[in-house]
Amino acid sequence: MKIALAQINTMVGAFVSNAAKIRQYAMRAAAQGARLVVFPELTIPGYPPLDLLDRPAFIARNLAALDDLVRFSATVDAALLVGFVAENPDDFGKPLYNAVALLEGGELQAIRYKTLLPTYDVFDEARHFEPSERREVIAWHGHRLGVCICEDAWNSREFWDTHLYDIDPVRELAEQGAQVIINVSASPFHRGKRPLRQAMLAHHAATFQVPVILVNQVGGNDSLVFDGRSLVLDAQGELVLEAKAFEEDLRVIDLANLPATITPRPADEISDIHDALVLGVKDYLAKCGFQQAVIGLSGGIDSAVTAAIAVRALGREHVLGVAMPSKYSSQHSLDDAAELARNLGIAFQVVPIEPAVGAMTQMLTPAFGFAPHGVTEENLQARLRGVTLMAFSNQQGALVLTTGNKSELAVGYCTLYGDMCGGLAVISDVPKTDVYRLAAYINRHQTVIPTHTITKPPSAELRPDQKDQDSLPPYDVLDAILERYIERYQSIEEIIAEGFDRATVEQVAKLINRNEYKRQQAAPGIKVTPKAFGRGRRVPIAAIIEP
């Protein structure tokens, strides 16, 4: 039996284009001899649909698209396994199911519902969906297909130390005689997830002695990036096929004649983060209707990395860099920004903000009784840069990409309505130490980011001789504390016990907790770590957070 893995990039609510892509891939797969074409989770409506599921018209269009695909299945010599939103016919429970349908010969042959509905991190599926009460194999042309949906495969009692659910759908399907486990998925990327996902699925295969197929979504939808990497494991849990990473792909495999074991492509964490950011930027702009991006170029490493990623995602002709020097800006920073723009081949403008700073100072001095100074003066500069970038945005129809990293956002080393101003925070989930690693990766073949940008001490240049380390611990120390406090949920005492200075840890924790109000006003960012700021980290603003 030849099965096609149709790893496609869908858009939430784009029923017409999603269905067109399903038809296109189904015909291509059938032409290659596939008898069954498997698509990702919620293929028709796109994933994640969030509260669009509350709209009756959204559900109706999803069902109408399914009906069209049922009719289409009569015209193609292959069956389709397609994700959609099903209505709950009962008068109790949530009104919807996360479902997958088997379509063939102009008929809807079978429907299966998702059992395990995640409610952690970025997921909130129990908000809308009713969990399935039954797990049943699909009998199809003499084969017994164990079809499950994403999270249904993530609860092996033997593989995991802790369990969120008391049901193991894969085990139940295997015990019913499933000859293959097919997991249709929308599994978002974060660093370290790829080997974990493969190891878990390999455990299923080896435990139940059946091949396992994962078909994963690819593409960016808002803050989430899906890496694809659909795969096939043989009955011993060995990898025999892996689809492309961060690209659409169509792969056909014969279950009766599986290929030889392959070695997984070497894992490269920074390469993956880079590619995830590129895809996230590309899809965010395209799916939101933007073609151009504008970036404030300070001559620093954050804006340089952001600009390089934007050029890779959009093309150099679609990116504008704007330098906005003040009286505190060094000439070398302006030179570094100009050199970066030349290396990238992007349009570049220099708009000094000193006239605007002078006008604001003159305007505010009578009200204050003295000229703005200290943090007031610093933030005036940052906010006038934000106003300038938004003027370019309005004039050219371009989206402003903010350039702040996760380390700065964590401790509030950023200015509301200033450097936080923009439509997409590209590296807001990238710690500063990883920003340097990204710069080295971008420069691996030729110098794109000027060497001086990488080697000079980072500075906001909002006051004379300012350096980041005047206000913050060294970034390697800061990032190590942030990972423990934000991603691992360690307490202050636990972090100190690992050898970190008490005063430093307490100060960092205090800064994290007091700056939640800033983060909740930040532009959406692209998730690349296990715990990103945004939808996956819900912390109250007005709260006393104990250590």
TrEMBL record:
- Locate the residues binding deamido-NAD(+): N379, E408, K518
Extract the coiled-coil ranges from the record.
Answer: none
The EC code for this enzyme is 6.3.5.1
Q: Provide the binding site for L-glutamine.
A: Y120, S187, K193
Q: In what residue span(s) does the CN hydrolase domain sit?
A: 1-260
Q: Tell me the pathway.
A: Cofactor biosynthesis; NAD(+) biosynthesis; NAD(+) from deamido-NAD(+) (L-Gln route): step 1/1
What is the recorded function of this protein according to its Swiss-Prot or TrEMBL entry?
Answer: Catalyzes the ATP-dependent amidation of deamido-NAD to form NAD. Uses L-glutamine as a nitrogen source.
MF terms (GO), sorted A to Z: NAD+ synthase (glutamine-hydrolyzing) activity
- Record's keyword terms, sorted: ATP-binding, Ligase, NAD, Nucleotide-binding
The record's listing under NCBIfam families reads: nadE (TIGR00552), PRK13981.1 (NF010588)
Into which EC class is this enzyme placed? ligase
Reactions the enzyme catalyzes: deamido-NAD(+) + L-glutamine + ATP + H2O = L-glutamate + AMP + diphosphate + NAD(+) + H(+)
Q: Which residues bind ATP?
A: G296, L297, S298, G299, G300, I301, D302, S303, T403
Cited Pfam families: CN_hydrolase, NAD_synthase
**Family indicated by similarity:** In the C-terminal section; belongs to the NAD synthetase family. Belongs to the NAD synthetase family.
Task: List the active-site residues.
Answer: E41, K114, C150
> What name goes with this protein?
Glutamine-dependent NAD(+) synthetase
Instruction: Indicate whether Nucleus appears among the record's keywords.
Output: no
